[in-house]
Specification:
Elements: E1 5-10, H1 16-25, E2 29-34, H2 39-44, E3 48-54, E4 60-61, E5 64-65, E6 79-82, E7 91-93, H3 99-109, H4 118-133, E8 137-141, H5 146-159, E9 163-169, H6 177-188, E10 193-197, H7 199-206, H8 212-232, E11 237-241, H9 246-251, E12 276-278, H10 286-295, H11 300-303, H12 323-342, E13 351-355, E14 360-365, E15 368-381, E16 389-390, H13 395-408, E17 412-417
Helix pairs in contact: 4-5, 4-10, 5-10, 12-13
């Protein structure tokens, strides 16, 4: 392994990710692990140089105080307790350390080397993947989004033709998305790509389902079923590759934090999953995933592609999905992306999309009363997807987008702009 590591044990703090990024900013790799990790589990982690016990207000779970196994204190690693007055550590602080104090602990007390960079991260993950997979094959869900594209490139570097990429068109893709995936990955990058059109299958399963969590879990579970069917057509498939990143895990809930929303690749996985997971990006934040893609040599257009959720337009067609509203989401989203590109906003704004709620409003179209849906535009900026601000889009650009949506998209008579930051809102509506 190329990188030294500082382990953060989560004892209920809401600032674990902030602390992890502060340590990485020092050039030292950090990972967040559950408070109940065993001494054996801690010692099995590679190149651990020190441990930070990060407390907080959520140190009671199911009526039981969150505490550390006393044996952990005997593991021999330097330990720092943050906001945890009962921890048996030589060093303790009431709040997150200042940069100078954190640097003193990480670099001097722990003796960690500042060798955290994407080149070393990739080399480490390649080594770990090869050790995990051996001579077996990995099945990867390749949506064409940033996360799945980067993990595909990393796995190709690690295991080459042992990787089988499967692109599932679940009918919830953006306009011309599947065609683009096939062109880039199969025709340009010559990936081992299997294309599955499962539109009707997914939409039939989702018919009448309005609850966001139920939709996400149906989509996640059905994805796995499709992969299992494809795996049965192949030989030696024992692993499932996923582009899970750290915000996915945080929002899906930890042992000391409540769920915000489940992600199809975390909370939506069935209990009888027949694959072992390969998730080399699961400790990275979104901006780090992009840096990883650049280091892997992926095209810039692919690395900075618009983020797209695993459930696709299924969580942007709010409530129970209908083909009519799904078409309205797809067409309005295409108009938004085209106009943002013309205005030079496609690289300035981190994420932008449209949603269509499951209710109608009165309006006038073609000189007659209409009772149709509304389109909501959302455009946000973020660094790590854990918080987000709203983009102040020029009024003329918004007017042009609105005019086109009202003129070109069927069953729509109103356009709104979402002004809600994260928090309290999430990036997606569902």
């Amino acid at each position: 392994m190329k990188q030294d590591m500082i382990v953060i044990l989560d004892l209920g703090s809401t600032e674990n990710t902030t602390l992890a990024r502060q340590i990485r900013d020092l050039g030292v790799y950090s990972e967040i692990h559950p408070h109940d990790i065993t001494p054996e589990g801690l010692k099995s982690l590679p190149n651990v140089k020190g441990v930070i016990l990060n407390g907080g207000k959520n140190r009671v779970v199911d009526g039981t105080a969150v505490e550390i196994d006393p044996v952990l204190y005997e593991c021999g690693f330097p330990m720092l307790a943050v906001d945890h007055p009962t921890a048996r550590c030589d060093r303790r602080m009431e709040t997150l350390p200042e940069e100078a104090d954190l640097k003193e602990f990480v670099l001097n007390v722990c003796g960690a080397q500042a060798n955290w960079n994407m080149k070393n991260f990739i080399e480490d993950q390649v080594e770990l993947v090869r050790k995990q997979v051996g001579d077996k094959k990995v099945l990867l869900a390749l949506s064409g989004g940033v996360d799945s594209s980067v993990v595909a490139a990393l796995l190709i570097r690690a295991i080459g033709q042992q990787l089988v990429c499967v692109h599932v068109n679940h009918g919830l893709m953006r306009k011309d998305e599947s065609e683009s995936v096939i062109e880039v990955f199969k025709n340009q990058l010559h990936a081992n790509l299997v294309y599955v059109d499962a539109t009707d299958r997914f939409l039939d399963k989702l018919a009448g389902v309005a609850d966001p969590e139920a939709k996400r879990k149906i989509i996640g579970s059905e994805f796995i079923r499709v992969f299992e069917e494809e795996a049965r057509k192949l030989e030696g498939i024992d692993f499932l590759g996923q582009g899970t990143i750290y915000p996915d895990i945080i929002e899906s809930g930890t042992k000391t934090a409540k769920m915000v929303k489940s992600h199809h690749n975390v909370g939506g996985l069935p209990e009888d999953l027949k694959f072992e997971l390969v998730e080399p990006l699961k400790q990275l934040f979104k901006d780090e995933v992009r840096s990883c893609g650049v280091e892997l040599g992926l095209p810039e257009a692919m690395v900075y592609r618009q983020p797209f959720p695993g459930p696709g337009l299924g969580v942007r067609c709010l409530g129970a999905i209908t083909r009519e509203r799904l078409s309205a989401v797809r067409e309005s989203d295409a108009i938004l992306r085209e106009e943002f590109r013309k205005a030079g906003l496609d690289r300035k704004v981190w994420q932008y999309f449209t949603v269509v709620p499951d209710f109608k409003s009165v309006g006038v179209k073609n000189n007659a009363r209409s009772f149709d849906y509304l389109v909501i535009i959302r455009a946000i900026n973020t660094v790590d997807a854990m918080s987000a601000t709203i983009e102040r889009v020029d009024w003329d650009v918004l007017q042009r987008i609105t005019d086109r949506i009202l003129a070109e998209v069927d069953h729509v008579n109103r356009v709104c702009y979402d002004m809600s930051p994260k928090p309290p809102a999430t990036i997606e509506f569902e």
